[in-house]
Amino acid sequence: MLPLLNEHLEGFSRSEDWVSRCQEVKERWARKNEEEGNTEGYPVHPSRIIRALDKTVASDAILALDTGDNTVWTNRNFRQTNQKTVFSGYWRTMGFGLPAAMTAKLIHPDKQVVTIVGDGGLQMVLADLMTAIRYRLDITVVVLNNESLQMEKDKIDVMGTKDIGTDLTNPDFVKLAEACGWKAFRPESDDELESVLEEALQTGGPALVDIPTAQELPRRQNKEKEYPNRILFGCSFLVHINTI
Ligand SMILES: Cc1ncc(C[n+]2csc(CCOP(=O)(O)OP(=O)(O)O)c2C)c(N)n1
Ligand SMILES: [Mg+2]
Fold it and tell me: What is the C-alpha to C-alpha distance for residues 100 and 81, in angstroms, rounded to an integer?
C-alpha cells in the first residue's frame, strides 16, 4: 500500500499554509473546549461534567456511552488516555449504556466500568437497575439529566420548527436507584462534581450519579451556526470506532 501511495504523491509538496491553518483551528478548538469545560453553574454545563469525569475515572476504565447529546459532549470533552469505549455506533440505540456496562463488567470484572447516559436513554432500561443488583455488578451510571430528549430538541431548534414531545417527565433517579438497592448520589453544585464522582466510583457496587444538566446545544466555533447533531454524532463514531 505504501509504495502505491508514494507513487501517487510524486510531484506533490506539503502545503505549509494548509498545515498551519489546521494547527490553528485545532488549537482554537482545544481552547474553546477548555473554556467550556470550566463553565460554572447549576444545572451543570455538560462539558463541565465530562471534564470532571475525565479527571476522576481510572486511566484504563471501560466507558459505555449511551446515545444522545451526552455522546456528543463525551466525544468532544473527554480526553481519553487508556480507556476503552463502547457505544452503539451503527444503530445509535438509546438505552445501550447500562446493559453495555453490565456486559463489560461481566467480561472484565477487574476493570472500572462507567456508563454515561441521558435521562431519556436511562428511562428506556430502568428494569436493568434490578439486573445490576441481582449480579452485584460494580458499575457507575452517570446520568446527564437535562429533562429532555435534547438531541431531538436541538434538531428541531436548528430546523426552526415547533418543538413537540421532547420534554421528559423523570422519576427521581436517586430515590429510584436507592429503592432498587443501589448507592445513589446527586451533586448539589458544580463544585461537588469531582468529589461525588470519586465517591460513586469507590462504592464497590452499582452506583448512580444523577447530575442536573444544562440544556446546552453543541455549537461550532463560529457561534452563528450550529452543527446538526447528525454530523456531530457521525464524528463521534469516526473517533471512537478505533477504540472499541
Ligand atoms: C431506541 C431509540 N429511540 C429513539 C432514538 C432517536 N434519538 C436519538 S438521541 C435521542 C434523545 C436522547 O435523549 P437523552 O437520552 O435524554 O439524551 P440527551 O440527548 O438529552 O443527552 C433520540 C430520541 C434512538 N437513537 N434510539
Ligand atoms: Mg436528556
Answer: 20
Residue 67: which CATH number? 3.40.50.970
- 44 C-alpha vs ligand 2 centroid, how far in Å? 13
Closest among 146, 166, 152, 150 to 211, alpha carbons compared? 146
Residue 21 counted as domain residue:
no
Question: Using the 8-state DSSP alphabet, how is residue 217 labeled?
Answer: P
- CA dihedral of residues 211, 213, 218, 224 (deg, nearest 10): -160
166 lines ligand 1 (CB under 6 A): no
Does any ligand 1 atom lie closer than 6 A to the CB of residue 94? yes
**Mean pLDDT, 10 residues at a time, the chain of 244 residues:** 87 89 95 94 97 97 98 94 95 97 98 98 98 98 98 92 95 98 98 98 98 85 49 49 36
- Listing DSSP states for 2-19 in one string gives HHHHHHHHTT----HHHH
